[in-house]
Amino acid sequence: MNNPLSWESSAGSSALRDHRILQLSIMKFLLISFILIGSAIAYLVAPRPHAAATLLARLVMGLVIFEYATLLGLLAILRRGHGKLHWIFLGTVICDTLVTSALVHFTGGAYSPYTILFMVGIISSAMAMPAFWAGSITFLSILSYAAVSIAGKTGWLPPLPGAGIVPDQLSASVLAARLSLNISAMAAVSALSILLTRHLSRAEQANVRKDRQIQLLFNRHQDILRSLNDGICCVSREGMVLDVNPAFRTLMGTNIEVGMTMENLSPELAGWVTQKPTSLRTRLNQGSQVLELEVSVQDLMVQEQTSGSIVVVRNRSEVSRLERDLAQQEKLAAIGRLTASIAHEIRNPLTSIAGSLELLRPSMTSQEPENRELFDIVFREIRRLNDLISELRVYTSQKKPRVENLDLVEFLQETVMLCEADPKNAGTRFDLELPGTCAIQFDPGGLRQVLLNLIINAVQAAPGTWVRICLTSNDGEVKVDVEDPGPGIPLDMQEKIFEPFVSTKNSGTGLGLAVAGHILMAHGGRLTLARSDASGTVMRLIIPASTSET
């Protein structure tokens, strides 16, 4: 239940109350300014036959100026802000009532033209004060008006000499009629003002609640847009950007702002708005990376009418990579099943052929020595074919890897020592950029095969130069870059080098990178081509970081 003495219950929040006090003060400022100007003109223009009239005019002018100065002081307090502003306003209204009473007495009592100033105080109190205080100001105004009128009539308050209307000269009936009329008007104005102010306060509070709800919905709308990973841009029918979220700016790589027109938008976005595709797959270059995007455009409906378009851009780069990896795995699985059966069928007769040739070799080379070279070629090709079959068996193997806790830094150092000891790598400098330690979980045999394969490829790409191996770790992943200064991989081969039987070397089997990728994939990692151009090639191993200590 509202407290009748509470200021909050009458005018809503303190902000609304202070705003209303400011409006009322400005209104009073204008009214008093008008009265002051009118009084000044009347004083300057009207003839003054004797000093008494001049004294009366000066007294009236002084009271008006006092009221004016008081109002200016209140406006200054309003501008600075004050926690007790409502009490200060109450004091000024009481002061206004007393000053108005003096003006009414000096200018004719019940018939004074300044009686209307009582109405200003009554209306002001009703609009900015609780009902109790508004009623109190009304009662004070009626009491003051009746008191000065009756006191002037009875002679208790003598009039100033020179007054145009002398209260004691009025008949009792005329005075009573005038008092009844003005007091009734004051009471009616007070009641209506209080009633209207209550309705106004309820309406203002309802508007404040609605404004808060609208602001809350707007903030929630903005938070949702900012939280989405998909890019969203709303464009009006006239081609003006209505709203855009940060993800859209990031994906498009441009600074799109609300209010921009089609002429300022990128050609891609303008084309999408015009064509309105439902599901468009496209690629967008952003510096060093290429994003694979899915674009869909829908109608922006407002009150069941199309008022624009909603452009939704989804980054499918990672999803596309996973789809390609899945397709590659399915393809490799099919090839693996085929090659496993072929390898089994080839290895058995190949072993018989090798054994038979070994038995024939002494007799054939003793009778014809020139056959020795032919046998060497045959056995070399048999060994190469046997190595190819062995790699095929590793590639198609479904055996679960034997995972161990390893220190990758130490493992890399050991692998590089093996490569440095190999005479085939003579003249090649191996540069290592390693941290102090790096724990991973991996099959030691499989990891050694992967590293040797990549290092040997790097050495063969640029013999007698250098190979740089760099180890970094971040975001739960360990990255090993193997770099060489070779001529690079041809552009048309870069997407195929991880497929089986694809090689850039004349003597290669085309299974080295495919086997390395297969081993890494079995451990939750992957093998990628980080860079390959005229300045060299960087192959990158990505391995999940270990979650346990070595």
Please outline what is shown here:
With 550 residues, this protein is of the alpha+beta class. The protein contains 14 helices and twelve strands.
Euclidean distance between termini CA atoms: 70 Å
Largest sheet: 5 strands, antiparallel
Class per helix and strand makeup:
alpha+beta
Arithmetic mean pLDDT = 78
Unreliably modeled segments: none
The geometry reads as rod-shaped
Instruction: Please give the share of residues in helix.
Output: 55-70%
Structure summary, number of beta strands: 12
The number of distinct helices, counting runs of at least 4 residues, comes to: 14
* Oligomeric state, counting identical vs distinct chains: single chain
Q: Determine Rg (CA atoms, Å).
A: 49 Å
Q: Encode the helix/strand succession as letters.
A: HHHHHHHEEHHEEEHHEHEEHEEHEE
- Side-by-side strand order of the widest sheet: 2-1-5-4-3
- Proportion of strand residues: 15-25%
Explain the overall architecture.
This protein is α+β, with helices and mostly antiparallel strands and 550 residues long. Helices cover 58% and strands 16% of the residues. The chain is built from 14 helices and twelve strands. Helix 5 (116-128) packs parallel to helix 7 and helix 13 (444-461) packs antiparallel against helix 14 (512-522).
Helices and strands in order, then pairings?
Blueprint: H1 8-11, H2 14-45, H3 51-80, H4 85-106, H5 116-128, H6 131-154, H7 172-227, E1 231-236, E2 241-244, H8 246-252, H9 267-275, E3 280-286, E4 289-302, E5 305-315, H10 317-367, H11 371-396, E6 404-407, H12 408-421, E7 429-433, E8 439-442, H13 444-461, E9 466-474, E10 477-484, H14 512-522, E11 526-533, E12 536-544
Parallel strand pairs: 7-9
Antiparallel strand pairs: 1-2, 1-5, 3-4, 4-5, 6-8, 9-10, 10-12, 11-12
Helix pairs in contact: 2-3, 2-5, 3-4, 4-5, 4-6, 5-6, 5-7, 6-7, 10-11, 11-14, 12-13, 13-14
